[in-house]
Amino acid sequence: MNIPVIKALLARDLGMIRRSRALMLPMLFLPTLLLVVLPAAIGLSARERTLDVGTFVNMLPERIAEPVMSAPPDERLIILVLGYMVAPLFLIVPLMVSSVLAADTFAGEKERKTLETLLHLPVADRDLYVAKLLSTFIPSTAVAWIGFAVFCVVSNVVCWPVMGRIFIPTKTWMLVIFWLAPAVAALGLGVMVRVSLRVENTQEAQQLGGAVVLPLVVLAVGQTTGLLLAGPVVTVVVGLLVWMIAATLNWRGMRAYRRNTMAARL
User: Contact, 253 vs 193, CB < 8 A?
Assistant: First the structure.
């Protein structure tokens, strides 16, 4: 691979993302709502009054109910929501951000009438495809990691009067964020970049890709809390499987990408 060329293309795409409100607003709004506003609201609610969550907790699996109910009554709401129920949001964020950006990779270039110029650059097909993947993967992973850091700070600061200690992150949380979240982002872009190659504009890419990505979102929501309970070994294994699927999708996409075919469709 031609690293200087990939860096130049990557800088071009990242600069375009930074200047585009249509891309920046979804990247910032959803993480801010889920990872900043929500933990602050939960922490403030727990500080103002003690809510009885026992009835709800008793409906949950025993492995969730036991650590929650063993905590003091004023800590239960915080542990339940911020310790377990918010967990799926951290996989939704990189998945949704990567889907939004990946939908714009090639379809956005067609819509802006810049794809023809890009295809005529003296760049290898592989270098161009890798640069497009990185321009999606890096921002989506960065948003997830920065959002998690902000979430930890907000949660621990707001909840300190109740908890009296730093309770997030745990070791399993760290694995979910730094091992599984990038894998989910790579999986999302492996699907959406190939969709973007075949459509004419970003709206069509998002509509078509949404039908593919939505089951992944449902799966992420359904399994993340279970991973926190299962422990680090299971989280590592699940992350490895997701990485393998994502690598296969992206490798096959790179092998199938042909600049001449795309140019013929313009």
Answer: yes
Dihedral angle of Cα 88, 91, 92, 93, to the nearest 10 degrees: 120
State pTM to two decimals.
0.82
Across 85-124, b (16+ Cβ under 10 Å) vs e yields: bbbbbbbbbbbbbbbbbbbbbbbbbbbeeebeebbeeebe
Task: Give residue 207's pLDDT.
Answer: 65
- In which element (H, E) is residue 240 found? helix 232-256
Q: Does residue 57 carry a pLDDT above 80?
A: no
Q: Establish whether the linkage from the previous residue to 169 is cis, with ω within 30° of 0.
A: yes
Q: In which band, very low, low, confident or very high, does the pLDDT at 54 lie, cut at 50, 70 and 90?
A: low
Helix 181-198, helix 202-230: angle, nearest 10:
160
- Top-confidence residue, 153 or 90: 153
Q: Specify the amino acid at residue 183.
A: A
Q: What is the reported pLDDT for 109? A: 76
Going 248 to 111 to 138 to 31, the CA torsion angle's sign is negative
22 touches 138 (CB < 8 A): no
Residue bearing the bigger pLDDT, 223 or 178: 178
